Amino acid sequence: MPSKHLQRKDDRVIIHFDYDCFYASVFEAENPTLKTQPLAVQQKQIIVTCNYEARRRGLYKLQRITEARSTCPEAVIVLGEDLTRFRDASKSLYQYLRSFVWAQKAEKCGFDEVWLDVTSMIEYNLDLLNHNSLSQSFFCLSQTDPLQGFAYDATKVAGHTYPKAVDVRQLLSSEQHRQLTLRLILGSHLAMHIRLSMEEKTGYTSTVGIGTSKLISKLIGNVNKPKGQTTLLPPYDTESSNIYAFLDAHDIGKIPYIGFKLAQKLRERVLGRSADFAAGLVYGGTREHVDVGQVRLLPDLSAEMLEKLFAGPGMTHGIGLRVYQLVNGVDNTEVADARNVPRQISIEDSYIRLDTMDQVIREMTSLSTRLIDRMRVDLTEDGEWLGRPCTLRLTTRPRLPLNADGSRTRTFNRISRSTSTPSFMFSFAASSVALATQLVQEILMPLFKKLHPERDGWNLSLVNVAVTGMEEKQELGTDISTLFKKQEDHRKMWDSEVLPFVEDDIIDNADFEVDKPQVPGDDYIQSSQDIDPDPVDIWEAEDDDDDEDMLEGNEQAGYQCPVCNELMPGFAQAAHERFHENSTSSSQLH
Ligand code: DCP
Ligand code: MG
């Protein structure tokens, strides 16, 4: 009997979708002739993604544009700086997927991932099974219309399995494994049906994982991509658990939620020495491979031990337990309820240099204009607000001053300040630029001064303006006391459920006044773009150390400037070189 901490909720069936080469697919959907050509999507100086035809010819994600051009001169390269088309596609694909589930548990993660909790559909269909003729089953997609559904063979898994070679009949004849196996078989057929329907109706293909948790369903999908689906089969609980077999081989840094800082601490603990980075990189991929199994089998591993290991500024209580569970394949977090409005909207940009008040005002105004435009699109319908965010947040990422030798230590730490969202932001009477200007003057400048009390002397590498704490329309009380109560509940929810699991993005420099962010690090898109205005939850903590993940699997991407020695991800190189070229001109942004 596993300890209380390690009891898994295996009574759920969860399907994870990851759209294949998402940005490229959005362009292909607009222009189907691109499907047969090598297609790459460019942001700044990198290829953020490319279709599989381009991958076949040697292009890869997060490749430098110059390199991509020389590897595959015939590739069609499209500009993906404007995220509107991706956001719109993401929204409609999400609506499509959620239309299948009964219990309204459909959670979006970033632009191109969705979890569906289909447990109630599976249970309903388990009851319908005729155990004497499992191979001729019918899956009901509707509780009211018995004809809506599809025929399937309940003795076989649809798509791939993990492990590859598995005797399903034997699992079905084992009393211990039969029930879970059947649930997963039904889940695999439902996943196949949804996946193929989506391809037929929308043209988008996806890579799908089926399991009993968000963790497993997300990771198992990667085993067969693209256009594939994989189901993790029992045994789950014995020493020869397939959960362990599968998870143990993962690099510790590949586990969602275990961000770079946590992964480094775990590597150091396993190796018994400090874990070096790849030469030439201050952040990003490390060549020190430590896998989940090595962590899981540490003799003294416990939630308390990990809590102590991670202790330090910005680490939230409960983090040890969360990681202890994850390395043991336990993730009992729920798939969030489907939403009509995003949980937050957040707009940011990054800068090579941002160090004067004038520039800050200009940038904050531009970000706020985009934020208000975005709110008007995503939060309204027929001129009515469907959702109202309670909190407005300003975040910056200051650069540290130069070291004595002229080099600069890079930091990913963000600092933020929040306040209530001012009601004028919801006005339709003025243009978004006018509202943004008012917002900067009345609200953002005072917040900025709290973050950076000095008039100058700072230099920012990132500014983010966000609205969070979204209240959906049906929740909005007309009575103000109800509204406050709701806000309080909302905050409590974050406090108790989300924050304990988050590797906070809080700077540990005592010189800065720091607010606890209301939500965890919210950057999914990491290339200085508008960032995803979608649900933010514990899973996105994996991206806390933004930019780092850009380098995963592409360690060559690190670049050290020969002029100032600054280290940076490869994608920043071109912009940085331009920075030196322009360093005598007045504008040194980007
Ligand atoms: N993206 C980005 N910057 C990153 C990572 C991703 O702009 N650092 C964008 C481009 C991708 C989309 O997000 O199209 C989804 O990211 P994925 O990692 O899932 O990549 P793809 O969906 O493109 O490819 P795959 O088929 O490997 O899932
Ligand atoms: Mg994808």
Provide structural commentary.
It is built from 17 helices and 20 strands. It has a six-stranded mixed β-sheet, with helices on both faces. It has a four-stranded mixed β-sheet with strand order 4-3-2-5. It is globular. It starts with 13 loop residues before the first strand and ends in a 9-residue tail after the last helix. The C terminus is likely disordered. Magnesium ion binds next to β1.
How do you describe this structure in short?
The chain has 590 residues and is α+β, with helices and mostly antiparallel strands.
Characteristics of this structure?
six-stranded mixed β-sheet; four-stranded mixed β-sheet; 17 helices; binds 2'-deoxycytidine-5'-triphosphate; alpha+beta; about 600 residues; about 15% strand; binds magnesium ion
Topology (elements, then pairings):
Layout: E1 14-19, H1 22-30, E2 39-43, E3 46-50, H2 52-56, E4 63-64, H3 65-71, E5 76-79, H4 84-98, E6 106-109, E7 113-117, H5 119-128, E8 137-140, E9 149-152, E10 160-162, H6 168-173, H7 175-202, E11 206-211, H8 214-221, E12 229-232, H9 242-248, H10 260-271, H11 292-296, H12 303-310, H13 319-327, E13 345-350, H14 357-378, E14 380-381, E15 384-385, E16 387-398, E17 415-420, H15 432-451, E18 460-472, H16 480-498, E19 558-560, E20 567-569, H17 573-581
Parallel strand pairs: 2-5, 10-12, 11-12
Antiparallel strand pairs: 1-7, 1-11, 2-3, 3-4, 6-7, 8-9, 13-18, 14-15, 16-17, 16-18, 19-20
Helix pairs in contact: 5-7, 12-13, 14-15
The structure holds 2'-deoxycytidine-5'-triphosphate and magnesium ion.
Magnesium ion binds at residues 18-20, 22, 112.
